[in-house]
Write a structure and sequence with these properties.
6-stranded mixed sheet, 6 strands, globular, binds iron/sulfur cluster
Length: 248
């Protein structure tokens, strides 16, 4: 196997092909059906239709994202395994802090992301040796140092589009007639949960519509980066500890 640094020069298709050959059934694509994720799915469909695809259903997704699951199933034939948060953890969190706790303060928002996104994904990824995500360096300052291949706690993460621009993504979509999430046509530039995402104004940063009410916090949910902006290192606290921390 080549050193990860040697893989940095591969274009997205070649990196995906290498990953399919190297990890086989232990490789998974995680997507929320944003533009980058759709480009990766389209590329993957030309390499190996049997590749596994997962998506997180946080329970707070916009209906348009469910529409995208149906489109991907029909267009590409991917089964799309939907990952849900733990029912007991959601019930405890919502009972104590209310359904819209994320508007209260940043720790509450991060608690919600941890319970609805980070933990379910980590549980699912434990089934695999490698996963593919649609991150790009130019999406935000937090992502500027992103590597195409990284390893964390024995799990390899691939970001084949790390060095692509938004224009390259748009060009690929147009050239290959890749389906687009309907919310882009309504001014969204990045798409997550319905109550935490809005359209952006001309000139605003790409991720300005995510948790738009927060000031001076990284526009990250914790899947890829910790709340302080550092690379995510894995679970280290219990939900009970997080709830205590959010109460503080
Ligand atoms: Fe909760 Fe909002 Fe994070 Fe979704 S984006 S998990 S609703 S805080």
């Amino acid at each position: 196997m080549p050193a990860y640094d040697e893989l940095e020069s591969l274009d997205p298709q070649d990196l995906l092909r290498w990953a399919v050959d190297t990890y086989g059934d232990s490789l998974v694509i995680s997507t929320s059906f944003q533009r980058e994720g759709m480009v990766i799915l389209d590329m993957a469909s030309r390499i190996h239709l049997g590749i596994r695809v997962i998506t997180l259903d946080t329970g707070r997704l916009p209906e348009e994202t469910h529409h995208m699951i149906e489109i991907v199933r029909r267009r590409y034939g991917f089964r799309v395994e939907t990952v849900f948060p733990d029912y007991d953890e959601v019930e405890e969190m919502v009972s104590r802090h209310g359904p819209n706790l994320f508007y209260q303060n940043a720790p509450m928002r991060m608690l919600c992301c941890e319970v609805r996104k980070v933990r379910p994904l980590q549980r699912k990824l434990a089934e695999f040796r490698a996963w593919v995500a649609g991150l790009r360096r130019s999406q935000s300052a937090t992502r500027s140092g992103l590597r195409k291949v990284e390893e964390e706690n024995g799990l390899v993460k691939l970001s084949p589009l790390a060095d692509w621009t938004g224009q390259q993504v748009a060009d690929y979509i147009r050239l290959h007639h890749v389906p687009e999430h309907p919310l882009y046509a309504r001014g969204y530039a990045s798409i997550g949960c319905a109550p935490c995402t809005r359209a952006v104004q001309p000139g605003e940063a790409e991720r300005a519509g995510r948790w738009w009410w927060e000031r001076d916090t990284p526009k990250e949910c914790g899947i890829h980066f910790s709340p302080d902006g550092s690379v995510r290192r894995g679970p280290d606290v219990t939900v009970g500890e997080m709830l205590k921390g959010a109460n503080a």
